[in-house]
Structure formats: structure tokens, C-alpha cells
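Input:
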Amino acid sequence: MASAASQNRHPQAKRKPDHTTFLTLDRQNDAINPSKARPHYPELAKLSAPHVESFNSLFGYGGASSGLLDRAVLDIGKRTVFDGRTGESNRNKLEMWLSNVSVGKPVLEGGSGMLSNQLFPGECRERGISYKGMMQCRLNWRVNDGPVTTEVKSLGKLPVMVRSVRCNLDGKSPRDLIKHREDGEEFGGYFVSNGIERLVRLLIVPRRNHATALIRSSFQNRGPTYSQFGVAIRCVRLDQTSQTVTMHYCTDGALTLRFSYRKSEYMVPVLLVLRALCEASDRELFERLTMGQSTNTFLTDRVELLLRSFRRYAVHTRKQCLSYLGSKFAVMMDSPEDHYEEDVGAEFLKRVVLVHLDDNKDKFDMLIFMMQKLYALVAGECASDNPDSPQHQEILLPGHLYLSIMKEKMGDWLGAIKTQIQLDLRMKPAQVDFADKKYMSKVFLKTTGAADIGRKMEYFLATGNLVSNTGLDLQQTSGYTIVAEKLNFYRYISHFRSVHRGSFFAELKTTTVRKLLPESWGFLCPVHTPDGSPCGLLNHLSHTCRIVVDKVDVAKVPALVASLGVGQMSGLGARVRLDANGVPDEDRMDVDGEASDGDADELDALDPEIEAERRNDVTVSVQLDGKVIGWCSAALALKVAQRLRHWKITRARPVPLDLEIGYVPPTRGGQYPGLFLFSTPARMMRPVKYLVNGEKDMVGPFEQVYMDIACLKEDIVPGVTTHIEESPTNVLSVVANLTPFSDHNQSPRNMYQCQMGKQSMGTPAHNLPHRTDNKLYRLQTGQTPVVRPKLHDAYGLDGYPNGMNAVVCVISYTGYDMEDASILNKSAHERGYGHGTVYKSEFIDLAAKRRKGEPVTVHFGLSVGGEEDGEVPTTKAGNILDFLDWDGLPIIGRRLTQGDPLYATVDDVSGKVTVVPYKSMEDAYVDEVRLIGTDTGDQELQKIHIKFRIPRPPIIGDKFSSRHGQKGVISQKWPTVDMPFSETGIVPDVIINPHAFPSRMTIGMFVESLAGKSGALHGRSQEATPWSFLEGDGESAADYFGEELKEAGFNYHGNEAMYSGITGGEFKADIYIGVVYYQRLRHMVSDKYQVRTTGPVHNVTQQPIKGRKRAGGIRFGEMERDSLLAHGVSFLLQDRLMNCSDYSQSWCCSQCGSLVGVESAAGQGKAICRTCGDSKGVEVIAVPYVFRYLVSELVGMGVKLKLTVR
Amino acid sequence: MNIDHHSGLSFTEAGGPQIAIKEVTPTTVTFVLSNTDLSVANALRRVMIAEVPTIAIDLVDFELNTTVLADEFIAHRLGLIPIISHQAVHLNYRHECTCSPYCEECSVLFSLDVSCQSENAMSVYSTHLVSSSPAVQPYVDPANEKGVLIAKLRKGQQLHVKAIARKGTGKEHAKWAPCTGVAFEYDPHNKLRHTTYWHEEDARKEWPLSAKAVEEPAPRDDEPFDYKAKPERFYFTVESTGALPPTTIVTQALDVLMRKLAEVHRVLGGIAEAQGEPVVQPTYNL
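Output:
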């Protein structure tokens, strides 16, 4: 039975899944006998892969046991301190560095007699603590290059990602997961911070190691002569930290490199850097830059100018350049005092300039390339690259960001030690002795705050704020983490798939960044983005989009490229354009077309064909991950690209599948040409089918722009198309895919559904009794949709129902369904349709009220010592023992109304019992009371968690929606007898108005209705994947389901003759009726209604206060007042704005017109005007209280306000 | 009142409404009501759904509930269990009874006390309910002898409730409705043109004929439209929840209908008497 069921579910191997059944028995079997081996829904588990895998890469990268963490620690380098005074001789040198950073799995510490000290995320959630593991490192130091001393230091407890390699749930099967109080399908990817699940957002950052040409007017503000042209490159080190460098073109012909280091900006002449990188003469530089284009006077003039103007620096050799750089950047680099300027210069080049490359020659080549690209941009030969296009973007992965923060904090710690020593040297130099272990440990002790990396990471996760000295090459300081709300499962999934453009762009006034670009096809979902302020900035990955995380082995690629005839760099000799004759025959591939001799007739340039051919001869660079690995003609580059792609798919040569082969052909004024290969992590990749052999190819957004990928079979152009989409639905995100027949809808409706699907009450999780979320929505009577796309099964969403199938009638009936309101069948409601529950919870920590170190004096309980016969305090609610037990805790299952006792505490010292009431206005049941101990479990109870259950049956005013962006509120609940009915006795559950359709054009809902009806009649599930039906007569979805309905004896078009429930008469028109899946949205009147007659008023103005929670009123504002005035309803005006607001009676002196000058004369029972000195003119008038307030404020300013009383 | 199962219902007055029963199964009855007005037919339909009294669990006292399901959720499920309601006629409605909170006159007590001792999950069915009255039992469908599933228990979980079943009608809550659905139809050939069949080309091709169409002669194409005609034959199918046999639902519905009419008659008679007008005795007896 079990094996049969699993075969059914993992059908890829044997047979196609049967989409006509609901697979109910399989699911039941999975629930009763969870798998001991693999996840039930592998597709679902993949959704959090970018998060989990990137975190895992910290601990293991490229198959090696050493991960990115080790590389980061290595890259932190050494900190050096000298004792004594500057200039003194015989100073002692202390070098410190870190090594062997390790992170352990989360454990409970200090307890004795525990069966296991493993800490699981479930416990953290229930106890409201963080899920973290011990982090340790070795702190090494040596004095005067002597022997190394090592000490193991704790770096605090590091928050650990759930289901990562450092999580205790790593590799657990569904059965084990359930044992550890998780969902069987738990896929992790988040951190538990104070009991709350938080995850690090995926962010869009510029594509790494690729020079992008930019035209920005803001570049002109960088300094005098700066132009708008620039070429930027975001270089990423092996440990995934980055350093962006921008090359600027100045109008005086100079080129400068701009970078920011520790949040300050610096500019360096490019030539200085070039010369410091390699010994190169002016001639060599000239030839490398111009590459034999001696006729291009634009270029030669500029290069000449550049070389000439560099003379003024008077640095000629490489050494001189390095020293010059060193002298300028020694302070910025905080370099050791014993370093020579030359060393500092070399260190500068290593740490700042093109950090993705190790070799200076590679850096030199890349800088040359950037200069060429910049000159081409200035000359207008190439266009600027669009930084908003996914072509030039990649994803900042949570693990990588996490690591870079950790790296910085570890560096800061070393820096703190250094600062502490320097402080000691200044304040009490006698004590400083590097050789003295005691002194060193004293210093370490003083810097333990900086050593607690774990606490800093926890702060980062809990707040999403980036506290950084360097800025980490990022554009924002906050908003990096979000709560993984389990409002329902759709919303939960979406968190892991969402990609944000960065909060910097949210404030941008232009909308260009929000545009949906064709380049994002297949990578970012065009449908799934919220409307409103984050529209277009918060996107979601398409469901097949994968993010490369692990190392891609490209060691063989340069050799393979060379074998195809791409010229290699050797020495710094002049790089004359490589024409076809330049490559030895045996290395060459057949390149079509004869090479032209370059000096062709001027007129030829006008002929587009000749021009295009000439373009094929342009020499382009071949780059692998931002390293120039060769040069060749464009025609050859194209061939190389094609051959590489063929190899990568057929696996004929060691070309990895995740290699991105972006061939940019030479064009007139288009993107700068070249062959760009990418193998680095953090790139988006997606699968498409290679037409040649039908195998899977992974395609990235850079190469996709220049590829010919057909969407459907009909789109294939022979000889052009190389790939085809696996399925057109691959472009949609998970949630967008779940809209049935979304291809029939007007597009904004699908966007609305993506929002509403995420707001509906559903099944957030299976481990509800072990969750302590603040607020949780649950649909009691969820159902699997009759009509659902294939992916619904692949993602196992039947485990998380999000709505219910409703018989929906499209009819205008009794008028209560006007304006998007819908009528609910009262009897359906009574049978459970749409019943929901809200869970709210509260942590009560008695320790929070106590100061640290004080003894425990307050306990939960109703009597001192816990006897069960003490005197019970009386409450308004009646016998307190009806609500609480002697332990002071509420009784489970008890219904609470406002003011009822919730829990009681007793103070040892005073013996006083404090009963704390239940405060919410809404009645609730006590669902769970959780007693929370400490890690060790040997402390007395001081913390509890109470979960309240609030039943929320649907009531008038609650919001419902179909899956087609058709939302509405319930306006009336009609009993069955009053509802219209069909000849077969079917009574609709929901009535909606036909006017909801013409303007919104949600044809998908009609189709779903048809499909649902026939599915219900035939007892099968209906496949509703978008783009699975053709258009046209006889092939459309309507025809397909029409035939099915006909077969069941119903009208082809889904209409039925219906009768009025009230009169029994047949309706004049036939009615469209079918089965549609309805979602109950979380917006409920119970959370929103606001009523007030009298109540609390504001202290100063005596006007009603605002706020629903405080029983305040709704503001009757100026515009409302205007409309009453316009209406002439003065009595209402008087009532609202005076009598029901701040009506007050006041004395007023009719003689002098004073309002506040009248005061009551003591003991005389009358009032006297202080200005007039008598009570003759004093009268009582009705004024708004605020007016009195205004008058007294004016008095305070010395302004008299005089009333005329008539 | 007098029902002849062979020829249908015969009222004392000849030419009055007639019922011809077509088919009776344990859960359904199909009949044709004729010789009466649409309003009467619809009234019968409405009464069958909403006003035939049955018994259903209305109040649940939870003594112990350690299942995963919330109290109110189990209570709701218990309420929806169909209970054989022949005794409903002998019970008082809650508002008719002076007792507090309930008594034997107005309620039947059910108790459910289950706990799971086995390693496997235990299913609690409506057959686990123990009634205080042997004549009032949960309805059990012959195809499903265990009854309705109420909850599932894991080892160590317990459910102990006292459920009070009361008499009520579908008007108040759907759980008291004796029928799951009432099919109602007249004029299968649309001779009266009460409705218009929307069609793309040919309404006759696109619209399936009702099963009841064989009962009436199809109109000829050249038949003139009789705009004075009124619906006369009403085709009913009543499906029971099991609380009452379908035929009983019909007879009790008729009974309720007649009581209502009698009440109108009685009140009007009282007024007539007070005004000194002659009182007409009812022609039917209850």
C-alpha cells in the first residue's frame, strides 16, 4: 500500500501523475505514515533553496569541507600594533589574526540529567528564544615574528538557519520532523529570533565582475570636469564580500577610478593604478588601449591626452607608482607602521582594485577593457547598460550577506583589541607588555563586547538593521530581514521567493526601476508583485528560477576556449587586431565568411550588409567571471559560444551546466560586444529545453537576451531558435501559477489574486499546537479545490487548504448583491462554510518586572505557599475558581469576556494576590497554557504563554474572494428557502452580481465555474493550468468543459433555469451557476467595527478621542461638515459637532464680552465678571469646550477675544 | 387526511390538489403535485425544508476534550448529525417548555465517552453516541454502518461530552432541516415561457431536456402561445437526511401547512364571530 502510494506521488520516473483524482488516499497515507527517507513534496522543499544553500555554503563550498566562512576569516588578515612611541627604535611588534572559526549546532547548556542537550527550533518557538549555536575561533598572536600564541575564544552564539547544515533538523525525514514538532514539509530557510521566524530578504544587486557602462548625470557632481559617463564594476571576493569600483571619464581626457572605502569616497587616476599594476611603457599602454585602431582618431587623441597629462604626477616606474599610492592610502588602509609605502600600495591594489582578481596582470587587462568600454561609451559606439535590467543584476543571498556582516564584525573585534592596546599605551604605557599573557588576557577581557559576534548577528536578524563601518558595499542600512508570517501557506512560501530591489529605490521618484522589463522573462514573475508603493520593487522569483549558490567548476574552461582559437594574452605586447589570419590554422574553427582587409572602400560602410560583415571582424574580448581570458573576432566568439553551449548540454567536455555563456554581438551603438562567461554564485538561472537533443539547459538573464528561446512549439523558427520553454507557466511564480485559468483573465486581476491569495484564511501550518505566533488565522472547513493547476499537487498544497468550493450563482437577487457585495446561504454557513478561527497569544514573564539579581518573590498562584484552601479574592466576574486554578493559571477551554480573570500572581513578601484581567473586547477561549522554563530547567515557573482561540464564523461584513481578484463582502445571509434553486434542487452557497464581470473581464472565473461544476458532477479534479487550452471553436476551455457538462445532462454553457425561492416561479432568464473556489480573506468586521455613543474624551478639548481600541469615535471632519452645511441639515450639524462632542455651558459677561474672565464668587452661588467687577451682565451660554480652551490659550498670548451676547 | 399511495393524495373536495407518487426509495421520494397553484407548491417546498420539525443536538456540555479539535468545532459536528426524528412530534419545542435548562419533555440526552488506548488513531463515529431514549438514535446509512465520523483520537486522548438534542426546524438552523435538497420543477417544455433559454444557435440542441419532459406532451412547433396558462403540474423530488423518511417529510409538511392554514382560519373565524358574521366550518379535519 505504502509503496503503491509513493509511486503515485513520485510519478516522474514511471508515469504521469493522474490529475483527475485528488490523491486523497496518498495524502492520508503520508499523514499517517510519514516518509522516513525523503520529503513528500521535493518541489516544495526546493523553494527555500537560495536561503538554505547560501547559508550552507558558509560551512562547505565547492564540495570542500572548508566553506566561505574560512575564506572570510583568512581575508580579514592581520592587525599589527607597536608599543613605545612613534619614531622610537626597538619597538615590539604584535600581530593578531583569527583562524579556525567554527559554529556548532544549537544545544542547551548547563542542564544536568537531560536525555539530549540538542536544541530544536520547535522549542525556541514555544519558549520565545532564539535558535543559535556556539561560535568559536582561534585568536592567534605573535610578538616580533616570534612563536605564535593561540587561544580559543568564544564568539557568542550565532543564530543558525533552520534546516541548514548547522541545524539539528538537517537531513531529517518528514517523520523525524513531525517528531520534533515541525510540519512534515518544513523546508527551513529562516532564523528563529526570540521565538519569531525571521528571514533575510533576497535583494537585487548589480551583477558581479562585469563592467557596466553607465550614463548618469549625477556623475557630473563628483567633481570639476567629471562627465556623465562611467563604467562600474562590482567586484566580489571569494568570500562573497564586494567592492564596487567606478571608472569616470573627465572632460579633460582624464580617467579616474572612484571607490568607497569605509563609507568615504576616493578617486585615483586610472593610469596611476595601471602603472602600479604592471610595468608598462606609454607605447605599450597606447597600443593596448587602441588595439591597432590607428584610424580611430577619437580614441587615439584621448589616449594620447591621457598619457601626456599623466606626466604631471612625475611617477614613472611601477615602484614609484606603488609608493605614491602607498603614501596617499596608508591612513585609509590603516596599514602597519613598519610597512613600506610600496607594500601599502600593493596592499591597496589587492584590497580595493578589482578584488575579484588575484593576479595584477589580470587586473591590468580588466582595467584596460574597462577603459576601452568607457571610451566606446563616450564615443557613442556603444550604449549604456541598463542597471535596472536583470541582465545586469544578481541576487544578494542571505548566507552571503550574513557572512559579510560576520566578517566585518570579526575584523572589528581585532580592531577593538588594537584600539584597546593603543589606549593602554597612551594612558598607562608601563603596563603594556605583549609577552605578558596576563596583560593580553586583560585586553581580551576588555573587548569581550566586541567579540560577541552572535549577539550582533541576532540584533541584525531581529531588527533588519545593518550596523556597519564599511557599509558592505550596499545601498541601505535597514530592512534586510522580514518576519516569515504564517498567515497562510501561500504567504509563507512567497516570503522565500520574494526579491526586493532595495529600499533606496522605494524613495526614488522615477518609476523606471519599477518597470517590467522583457529581460526578466522567466526569472521574475510578471504577475506576482503587489500594487501600491512596493509595486515593481518587490518581485517574486518564477517557480523554476534557481539561484546558483555552490561553486561551479570552470577550471577547464579557459583551456577549452583557447583550443577553439581564442588568442591568449602573453606579455604586454601590442595587441594588434586579430584577424582571421592571425590564428594558426589548426587552432581555428571554420569561420564563415572571408575576412576583409580592413581598408575597404569608404562607401562600403554605407552598405548595411558589408557593414554587418565588417562587424564580424571586430575583435572582442572573452571574459570568464570578469577576467579577460582572450581576444578573438566576433565571428569566432559566436562560434565559441555555440560550441561551449553544445558542450555544456551534451557534457562532451567539462563545461558545467550552470555556466552562463553571454555572447554580445557587435552592433551599431548597442551593448558593448564580447563573450562573457559567468560561473559565480548568486546568479539566477532557469531551465529551458535545448532543441538539438531535447536536454535541459540552464539559462541566465545575461545570455537570455541574445538567445532564441521559443515559448511554444509554434514559435520555433528553423535555423534560428535553439531552445524552447519547458512550459509557458515557467515564467510565473508559485502563487501566480495557482490561479486557475489565469490566462483567461484580464492581467491586473491576476495580480490582485496574488495579493488576496496571501491574505486569505487558510491552513498556516500543521503544527498549530506548537506555535506561539502573535496572531494566527485558520480556516476550519478548508477544502481542496476541485479546479486546480498541476502545480497544486507538485507543491503538496492540499495539505494547506486555503478556501472552500462554493456553488456560485451569478444573478442579481434581492439587491443585496450590489456593489460587489455577495449573498451567503445562511444554511451553508450553518453547515460550516467559511468557518474560521483566530488564535492570539500572549507571553507573561514575571521576571521582566523584577530587577536582575533580585530573588524571586512573585509567583503564579492564588495563595501564598500554594495551599488550596486560602481565601480567594472576589472579582466582579464571580467565583474566581471558575476561571483560574489554584496555580493562578487559566482553565483550558474557559470562555473569557472582557474583565474576566486571566491569571493571578501572589507576592511572597506582602502575601498579596493580584488577579490580572483579560483585556480584549472580544470573547475568547483559553486554548493553551504553556509553562516556560529556562535552558537548565531548574528554575521556578516565571514565564507562561497563553493562547486564545477566537471563533470567527462568517458574519455580514466579512470579506470573501474567488481566485480571480473578485473580492466582496457578505451583505446578507439568506436562509435556503429564500435562495434561488435549480431544477435539481441545488441551492447556491454564494450569490454574486453579474455586474462584477463586464468591466473586470475575469473570464477565468467563468471557466473555473464550468470546470468546477463538471468536476463535481463527474467526481474528479479538474486541471486548470494556464495556457493548456487553445483558442478557437471546439478547442477552447469553455467547449471542453461544455462537453463534459453536456455528458452529465447539463446545459453546455453552464446555465440553468432557476426558480425564485420566495415565489417558486421560474426566473425570466437562465442563470449561470457553477462551482468556484472561494477564499475567506482575513479582513473581518470583528476587527474593524467601531461604535460609540458616549465614552472617553480628550483631556484638554473634551472632544471624543480617536482610536478603535480606546472606544473612540470616528472623526467627523471638515469635508463631512461641508456636506452637512451644503445639505442645510443644521440640526444634524448641531447634534454631531456640538451636542455629541464637546458641549459645555459657560458663563459669559455680556457687558465686556469676556468668556474666561467670569468666575464664581465663593459662597454666593453666582458668578462675577472680574473685569466689570459685578454680576450684572453674567449669563450662561452653551459653547463648545474647545472654544473655551482657545480663548484661554489666546489670553495666555495676550490676545483678548470679545463675545457679543445677544 | 388521507393518502392513497396508489392514486396519490385525495382531498375531500374533488378537484383539489393531487399528489401522485412516482418513486419511493429509503432516502428519496418523487411525486407530482397537480391541480393546484404555484404558490401552494412552493409553500410545500419551503415547509419541507424549513418547517418540518426534527431532532438535532443543540447543546453540548464538554466534560473532557483532549482531542486536537476545539470544543465548538466538535459541538458543531455533533449538531449536524442526523437523528431519527419520529419522536419529534411528541417533544416540546424549547420555547414551549417551561423547564430550565432542559427536561425530558423537550430534549433527549446523548452521551459520548471515548478514549483511545490503541497505538493507532481511533475514529469516533456517531454510533458511539449513547441515547437516553431508545427511539431517538443517530441515523445510520446502511452503506456506512459506522455512521458519521465525529473526531479522531490519538493514544491517550479522550472525549467525554453530554449532548442535549432538541426539537427544532430548519428555519432556525440548517441542522434541523429534514431534507438535503428538494428538486422542484414545472413546465419542462417551457410552454408557459416563464423563462428564456439563452442559446447560441439552437436552444433545443443546446439545452438538455429535463427528465420530467416525458411527463408532458412536447409542444408542437405551430402551437399558439397560451398566455393565460398557469403552471399546474409540479415535479418534486425530496431527499432526506435520514432524520425522517422522505414520505414522512411530505406528509408532515402537509400537516404543518394545514395547521398553519387552520390557524389562519381560526383567527379569522374569531374575528368574524366578533363581528357577528357567520362562521364557516373547515371542510377538513385535523
